[in-house]
Design goal:
Layout (H helix, E strand, L loop, with lengths): L1 H6 L4 H20 L13 H29 L9 H10 L9 H21 L4 H18 L8 H10 L4 H26 L22 H21 L5 H22 L3 H7 L1 H14 L3 H18 L2
Length: 310
């Protein structure tokens, strides 16, 4: 299967669209529309639900497509490939409906902007501007999905590893982070004469325990981190120092996604790990030489995703 995907790279976007549409349609036919009551309350709830469902599909594919472009732009795979897009869609099929709504994917899209700005800063491209926009992207994303705040250490890791972090850029980053909250609070006060505080200020973080999950989730979690270790080990063999720094930022991102899940729930981990894991696992499959190992790992990966949907 992996060999087929490698040699049909141009068709992977089409395969990704087909899988995404089929999964979404079957999910709706079996379970009905996702519950969007927390987002929107209206007399036309059914119509709005279908509209949000369609917009979610467009957002998911758009974000994963842009993520694939970011990985190529910063040479995170050592070759041009659409495999991260395909694996991202496959991993999306593991996420439960509780975290699958447009606002979450807006936050992930902003998180991708944050990641792109951090990488640009590491490469010395407009470090002050990227310090501001990375903070602005993270601060904006937190309004839509507060667990993305667990990715804040990526700015410090990128700065320390590239030698681009100093007090001025840190202050600029913090200002960028605070600005979305300031703008929302000001706008809400001027229009409605009240103050809307961000949800992450009054979140009650609950520690995740093994009893909160099932066999499929735990098995999927173990496999993904075994693949993460394998990818990190493989990446050490033939890469420049700069390539390693960029790649290990994704490894850290995957680990921070797990930390976010520990302080929330497994659903949060599943949705936050899609972007970093799609790149890390793609690099693993592209660099791994033994075909039978590739096929075995990928087959188990797909089987666990099917199990998560049972």
């Amino acid at each position: 299967m992996i060999k087929f995907l490698k040699y049909n790279d141009g068709a992977l976007p089409l395969f990704s669209v087909i899988i995404l549409l089929l999964y979404s349609l079957v999910n709706v036919l079996v379970s009905g529309l996702p519950h969007y009551q927390e987002i929107f309350q209206s007399d036309h709830e059914n119509y709005v639900g279908w509209l949000l469902w369609a917009s979610q599909i467009v957002l998911v594919f758009s974000v994963l497509f842009l993520a694939n472009r970011v990985f190529q732009q910063f040479a995170l795979l050592n070759r041009i490939s659409n495999l991260p897009l395909f694996l991202g869609v496959v991993t999306y099929c593991a996420t439960p409906t509780s975290v699958n709504h447009p606002f979450v994917w807006l936050a992930i899209g902003l998180m991708l902007w944050y990641l792109s700005s951090v990488y640009s800063s590491m490469m010395g491209e407009r470090p002050k501007q990227n310090a501001f926009w990375s903070g602005f992207a993270l601060g904006s994303a937190a309004w839509f999905f507060s667990p993305v705040l667990f990715f804040a250490p990526l700015f410090f890791q990128s700065g320390f590893s590239s030698g681009m972090l100093n007090l001025r850029r840190l202050i600029i980053h913090v200002i960028g982070f605070i600005l979305p909250t300031y703008l929302v609070i000001t706008f809400d006060y001027l229009i409605y004469d009240e103050v809307m505080w961000p949800t992450w200020l009054h979140n009650r973080w609950a520690v995740f325990t093994l009893s909160d999950s099932n066999f499929w989730t735990l098995a999927f979690m173990i496999l993904t981190h075994v693949m993460l270790i394998m990818a990190a080990t493989t990446s050490l063999k033939s890469s420049t120092i700069r390539e390693k720094r960029r790649f290990f930022l994704l490894v850290t991102m995957s680990l921070l996604a797990l930390v976010a899940g520990i302080f929330n729930n497994a659903s949060v981990w599943l949705v936050l790990t899609i972007i970093p894991s799609s790149a890390v696992f793609s690099r693993l499959f592209l660099q791994m030489e033994k075909r039978w190992v590739q096929e075995t790992i990928f087959s188990i990966y797909v089987l666990l995703i099917i199990g998560l949907n049972l």
